[in-house]
Amino acid sequence: MLEGRRILLIIGGGIAAYKSLELIRRLKERGASVRAILTRGGAQFITPLAVGSLTGEKVSSELFSLTDEAEMGHIELSRAADLLVVAPATAHLMARMAAGLADDLATTVLLATDKPVLVAPAMNVRMWSHAATQRNLARLAADGIAVVGPNEGPMACNEFGPGRMAEPAEILAAIEASFGAGPLAGRRALVTAGPTREPIDPVRYIANRSSGRQGYAIAEALARLGADTTLVSGPAEIAPPAAVRCVKVETAGEMLAACEAALPVEVAVCAAAVADWRARAQANQKIKKSKAGLPALELVENPDILATLSRPGPRRPRLVVGFAAETEDVIAHASAKRAAKGCDWIVANDVSPGTGIMGGEENAVHLITPAGAESWERAPKSAVAARLAARIAETLAGGAS
Ligand code: C5P
Predict the structure, then answer these.
(1) Which of 216, 232, 249, 274 to mutate to test the pocket of ligand 1 (most atoms within 8 A of CB)?
(2) Does residue 359 carry a pLDDT above 80?
(3) What pTM was estimated for this model as a whole?
(4) Of 1.20.1050.10, 3.30.70.20, 1.50.40.10, 3.40.50.10300, which CATH number belongs to 188-396?
(5) Is 343 in the pocket of ligand 1 (CB under 6 A)?
(6) Which one, of 162, 171, 226, 195, lies nearest residue 381 by Cα?
(7) Would the CB of 196 count as within 6 Å of ligand 1?
(8) What are the tens digits of pLDDT across the range 288-300?
(9) How far apart are CA 260 and CA 305, in angstroms?
(10) Is 157 tagged catalytic?
(11) Integer Cα distance of 135 and 380 in angstroms
């Protein structure tokens, strides 16, 4: 799928450098050609011989090398690539990129290039969450640099948290997506996320506590696999993923209209926590407190977006996935919901108090399909999203649901 693509891989100085060897192998398997720059730090972790044996190309590392400049200079290295991938990108390397420094071959090539750049950060959890690193990350994103990972998990420094480099398979998927070559390339996806806000008067509304995290992660995961993804989001505090088209809405009515405008799609994932009711009439002015008594709030039912998208017809997506937040008999209730809504799959989660799932970083879900229920182990919402997106890609490729 990457036949003829030319990747320039810059390997920074982190323990995750060993994973770059696997990445090279997978890129080559898919027909890409890979040239590598090993930074001085990178060469402390893996050898030029290992890298060169896998790429089948000369490995570069020094900026002022007479022989290297004569063979392929720093400008030529970037010219001869379709994509630059920095993996692992250490905190220091990201800082130098953000500042536009050019004090070794890697950073000089990165400054001299006009090709797309993909960065896979890898560092200690505290270095990752440090304000300086987050500032550098925002600067790199603003400069148009794509980022994959990092993941959350146990780290070589005996700590736990975000900072682990994305797995080679994930970096590969990001590379394929950047070439429009992922397993969902050419397919359109729709994701709803976040709460909705139903106005009562100009200052008051009905809403709920949904953060939008799981839906945003799913949109990002689908886009990473190459899907042309529209994210229809209610008011959420988190930044939309870079590679998706984000349509911001407030009410359930607006969310339904935005979803219908995004059709046709092959897959729709409804992760939004849509308000079930709205006020029948919205007051034009703020409702005043009155000695005469309490205002009566008459509610009417909102449209069910999932059920509407699931209705049979020429515009029905091939695969419609709903969510079910349950507090008891999760699988039984979610299976009943699948039938009632007419969707193909339901992702069910137990949001009982004490699970920490609602608004949290992790999720433990059951996937309900026509074939039955599967329970997935508890994992970060990004990992659940990646697994769901992979399953969607597999299903659409296979033609079944
Ligand atoms: O009926 P319930 O709200 O439990 O169903 C949850 C599923 O239905 C979620 O996928 C949610 O996004 C979707 N839903 C919807 N429109 C509504 C209510 C729920 O799309 N009005």
Answers:
(1) 274
(2) no
(3) 0.69
(4) 3.40.50.10300
(5) no
(6) 162
(7) no
(8) 998 889 999 999 9
(9) 9
(10) yes
(11) 23
From the CA of 324, give the closest atom in ligand 1: 6
Residue 346 CB less than 6 A away from ligand 1: no
CATH of domain 6-178: 3.40.50.1950
Question: How is the chain split into domains, by residue range?
Answer: 6-178, 188-396
**Which of 157, 246, 259, 270 is the catalytic position?**
157
Identify residue 340 by its one-letter amino acid code. Answer: A
* Closest atom, ligand 1, to C-alpha of 322: 10
Alpha-carbon distances, residue 184 vs 100, 173, 224, 246, 267 (angstroms): 34, 10, 9, 18, 10
pLDDT digits (tens, 9 = 90+) for 335-351: 999 999 999 999 999 88
Distance CA 36, CA 128 (A): 25
- Ligand 1 centroid from CA 281, angstroms: 22
* Position 400 confidence tier, pLDDT thresholds 50, 70, 90: low
- Ligand 1, residue 308: give the atom nearest the CA: 20
Topology match between the domains 6-178 and 188-396:
yes
